[in-house]
Amino acid sequence: MRKLENAADLKQAMAELNARADVKKQEIKAEFSQVKENLQFKNVIKNTYSRLAETPEIQRTVVNTAVGMVLGYATNLFQKILREDSLNRLTQNIVHTQLDKIERKDPNSKAAKILSLVRTNIPHDSTLHPFLGYKRY
User: Is residue 133 included in any domain, yes or no?
Assistant: First the structure.
């Protein structure tokens, strides 16, 4: 601070102080309005979420959780699909379709006649009956 020697210097110093006070007042008002804006509920939630999203630990946790959920769903789905009875049914359908194709392609061929004979006469209690016997629709 400089030394004041007369009334003009005093008035000038007072004007400078008032100007600085006005600038500070404007800065404080701007900061207050910014704080007020940041403390609104939607902005608090948004800022909290953005800070959390920037945290590497949270990112890893969210990614691991999402991957775990997807893997759990896929495992559950595969367990339903790959049950023994569904695999047996799939195999039976494939075998029946192929045997039917062979029989229909050339019904007078030896292979078709033998296949028809086997499929007709296979015992119902045989373990091969579900695969070779005629399918009832």
Answer: yes
- Does 113 fall in a domain? yes
In a domain, 39, yes or no: no
In a domain, 61, yes or no: no
pLDDT > 70 fraction of the chain, expressed in percent and rounded: 96
What DSSP string describes 32-83? HHHHHHHTSHHHHHHHHHHHHHH-HHHHHHHHHHHHHHHHHHHHHHHHHHT-
pLDDT at position 70 = 93
The rounded distance, in Å, linking the Cα atoms of 115 and 69 is 49
Query: 23 pLDDT exceeds 90?
Result: yes
The number of domains in the chain is 1
Cα separation, 66 vs 53, whole angstroms: 14
Residues 6+ apart with CB under 8 A from 34: none
Domain that holds residue 109: 83-137
Q: Whole-model pTM above 0.70? A: no
Assess whether pLDDT exceeds 70 at residue 50.
yes
